[in-house]
Write a structure and sequence with these properties.
By secondary structure, this protein is of the alpha+beta class. It has 8 helices and 4 strands; from the N terminus they run βββαβααααααα. Strands 1-2-4-3 form a 4-stranded mixed β-sheet, covered by helices on one side.
Length: 285
């Protein structure tokens, strides 16, 4: 399900901001973008997110800046720097190039600048974790509101399908009677005598071929199941996926049995509605 949230906090240690966004996905796929000094929080943050989010491709990014905080002196790891420079020299020799290394890129190499979790970073770490929980609250609230809109849309589509089912239910006996009348007229035109028993047999076979009561009953049953599923206070996306498949199966069978233009049109409209519902169901956890 799509969702978005952004929270920001300015504290003594600096400015923290979380931005969460998600798009549709069958399972939960969480991507955390953290500054290097906050990497130790990753497992904790993943656990928090998993408790609150069941589905979607979610991207969560943290920004941290020491606004208004005096920056301390950089501490260089001499051994690590020497190792990096030696590696650069070895690669340059093999590539036969004399280009000097970029100092900024060297400083950015992991381990060259010491980044120990001193008391200075301990406070931002704790604040980032608490702020992430607040961002999750806002994020899940926006997704809940979208879920309510999606639920209303699906129920509206179910109501439209129910109207089509009723229309087919009323039309089906007329189609059977019309077929029987055509058969009798054809027999009369041919001027042949047909035994009543044989005519009754043909009529029974035709009625069996044209009978759609079972499909209509199953469609109505699936409508009830979809409504009940939408009312549950739990993750229902996968169950709704399955129910959409079942609805589509019955609509296809109904279409294949149809010998009437009006019934065929209703079956096609049902399949269009089911596809619209299926696209929305992909947004539901």
């Amino acid at each position: 399900m799509t969702g978005y949230a952004r929270v920001e906090q300015l504290g003594p240690a600096g400015r923290l901001s979380w931005e969460l966004r998600s798009v549709n996905h069958r399972y939960l796929e969480l991507q955390l973008k953290l500054p290097e000094e906050f990497r130790s929080l990753e497992n904790e943050l993943r656990a928090l997110a998993t408790q609150r989010i069941g589905r979607g491709k979610v991207e969560a990014g943290l920004r941290f800046s020491r606004d208004g905080v005096a920056a301390g002196a950089l501490q260089i790891d001499g051994e690590r720097l020497s190792a990096v420079l030696a590696a650069i020299e070895q690669v340059s020799a093999q590539l036969r190039t004399s280009a000097a290394p970029d100092p900024i890129q060297v400083l950015a190499w992991p381990g060259v600048v010491k980044q120990e979790h001193t008391p200075e970073i301990a406070a931002p770490l704790a604040e980032a974790s608490l702020l992430f929980a607040a961002a999750l609250d806002d994020f899940t609230s926006t997704r809940s509101r979208e879920g309510e809109r999606t639920q209303a849309y699906l129920i509206e589509r179910l109501d439209a399908m129910a109207v089509l089912v009723d229309r087919v239910r009323l039309r089906a006996p007329q189609v059977r009677d019309a077929w029987l009348e055509r058969l009798r007229a054809k027999i009369a035109d041919l001027g042949v005598d047909v035994e009543p028993a044989r005519l009754a047999q043909e009529a029974a076979m035709a009625a069996q071929r044209l009978d759609v009561d079972e499909e209509l009953s199953r469609l109505a049953s699936h409508f009830v199941e979809v409504r009940d599923t939408l009312a549950r206070d739990e993750a229902v996306g996968r169950r709704l996926d399955f129910l959409m498949q079942e609805l589509n199966r019955e609509a296809n069978t109904l279409s294949s049995k149809s010998q009437d233009a009006e019934m065929t049109r209703c079956a096609v409209e049902m399949k269009v509605i089911i596809e619209q519902m299926r696209e929305q169901v992909q947004n539901i956890e």
